[in-house]
Write a sequence for this structure.
């Protein structure tokens, strides 16, 4: 099953449960891409990953992941992201930058 199409700024209803600690109604798919990517990488299923890659592209997801502070991803999710996005290492952003 592939992810359905949505407007560019919309966060689909099937992604919203992954962002339980945010006010999704006030979020924007582009502005809040890092938060959305972290939620999907940490907790998403295949349909979430498909939507994320279609929405942001592999290069866009890789770029967002490289800017995350250390500890933003769960260890198993980080290992999977390394494989899927061909990342040798993460160049974590400093926590003071956020």
């Amino acid at each position: 099953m592939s992810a359905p199409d949505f407007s560019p700024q919309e966060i689909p209803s099937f992604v919203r449960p992954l962002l339980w600690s945010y006010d999704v109604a006030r979020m924007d798919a582009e502005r809040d891409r890092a938060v959305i990517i972290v939620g999907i990488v940490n907790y998403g299923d295949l349909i979430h990953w498909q939507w994320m890659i279609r929405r942001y592209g592999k290069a866009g997801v890789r770029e967002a992941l490289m800017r995350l502070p250390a500890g933003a991803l769960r260890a198993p999710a980080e290992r999977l992201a390394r494989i899927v996005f061909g990342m040798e290492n993460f160049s974590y952003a400093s926590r003071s930058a956020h």
